[in-house]
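Lecture 7, part B: from sequences to assemblies.

Below are the input chains for today's worked example.
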Amino acid sequence: MIKVEGITKSFKVAKRSTGLLQATKALFHREHTIVEALKDISFTIEPGEIVGYIGPNGAGKSTTIKIMSGILVPDGGNCSIMGFTPWKERTQYVKNIGVVFGQRSQLWWDVPVIDSFELLKDIYKVPPQEYKTTLDLLNETLELKDIINAPVRQLSLGQRMRCEIAASLLHNPKILFLDEPTIGLDAVSKIAVRQFIKTINQEKGVTVVLTTHDMNDIEALANRVILIGKGSLLYDGKLEELRRRFGTHKTITADYRKNTNSIDIPGTTIIHWSPEHAVLSIDTEQILTSDVIAELSKKVDLLDVTIESQPIEDIIVQLYKEFQI
Amino acid sequence: MKVYASVLKLRLLIGMQYRAAALAGVATQFFWGFISIMVFEAFYEHAAITPPISLKELITYIWLQQAFLAFVMLWFRDNELFDLITSGNIAYELCRPADLYGFWYAKLLAQRLSSALLRCYPILIVAFFLPKPYNMTLPPDVTTFILFVITLLLGLLLLVAISMFLYISVFVTLSPMGSLLIFGVLGEFFAGLIIPIPLMPMWLQKIAFVLPFRWTADFPFRVYSGHILQTEALIGVFIQLGYLLGLLWLGKLAFNAALKRVVVQGG
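Predicted structure of the full complex, as structure tokens:
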């Protein structure tokens, strides 16, 4: 479906120090630095997959999305999506894809949402019958009924984002690129958007590539993640694998009857301790969770124990640190 | 074609949302029209030689200019397109299965058409019923009128083709103000919107005749009043067509070159 091979892209950025003198100097002579946004990125995505594309700010996520949607021309490398090279056969190709840029808007600001939809219908030449069924489905799953007749400027961010996503799907694309679709949304809207992405993936078999900084999005949606940093591909595989490889820490929170004895257990570190409450971090490569609990119960009268896996957010932070990105 | 029709429809809808703006625009144009006519009237009363265009023709010229302001003014712009370029929302435009030059051309055309449709009727109707000598007059015959409609519409197409260069220049400069000022001032002057071309000194007329601007306003308006003869007008139509094709070709070339270099920055 999507095949990206050795894509590279660099940008020329004008460089100037602060101050009036420097600004005057820059009038005559300007220094440029070359920023390598993407270095030799390759991956393949099969039909029907949901792939989470993650990385810190400035890693090159959006650049990759823009190249895959035909907006940017890479400096080198190949990309074949459904048999098209996005930047070469742009007009032919873009009929098949839907794109949502979370930070931009495609709706006409001054008119009701439905008018923008009608225009998109004509731009993509969607047959009336198909348009109606798609719109009904979108209305229902994204709960647009009450907002579709309001001018875009009167919508809240969450409402607008739901409309933006709907607008990108009116022509029934086979691939959907989502660039930070949940940015700035509240919990309810986020869940609605996630639910929707899942639905279209399962029911219509739409291939989804999404970038996000919210790891809950990834956990809820993607079974595969591609991690990039500073323009290089760092990890490509299952989320569980990532967790297994890097998320070897668990946290145990224990409440017990008042006890002033030490609860030092080899293979664990004490994060917090009080006579009635303790938080331990354990490395599952060194000691089994059950052993820790057994040890604990020998030392104190346990009242309550909770075991938590390391949140995926922490794993990602740890990963960023490890790769120094 | 349907796409272009729906762009026009959407534009009309947006235009009609701003009724107050349309009304204020009409009022301003009346005021402006009267002032211009009075200034020219004063000049004509004390003219030592017979001016090359009669006052009656000139008044009709001014009312047409006010009624079809949206067809002839280069400063009449679509800020949305500027915003698309400078804010990077053009990213979405590039994801559409449409030729972008054609799509934007349609947008600009639609904006001018919708604006003119909303504003020209009140001005034209009132201008016909004004007391003499301020009133507008009918064209001398039906053929002239048909020629006027053709030249006006061709002029509109030509103007949109010229204004496309304004938008293309923003790809490079990222700020529309400079281009707007240069295009606006030079374009309007040489289109005869400040002083009608026949009243310009000979050497200035020569420059105006070389440039494409006068074919958008001066030419159709003088065809209407019969100041340009029918045979001359017919030749003019072909010159308009020539300019139009040439500018469309150049514009498309420049537009595609600009698009290749486009970099959408940020998230």
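Note for the exam: The CA atoms of residues 140 and 226 of chain B lie 7 Å apart. Keep this in mind when comparing with the next example.
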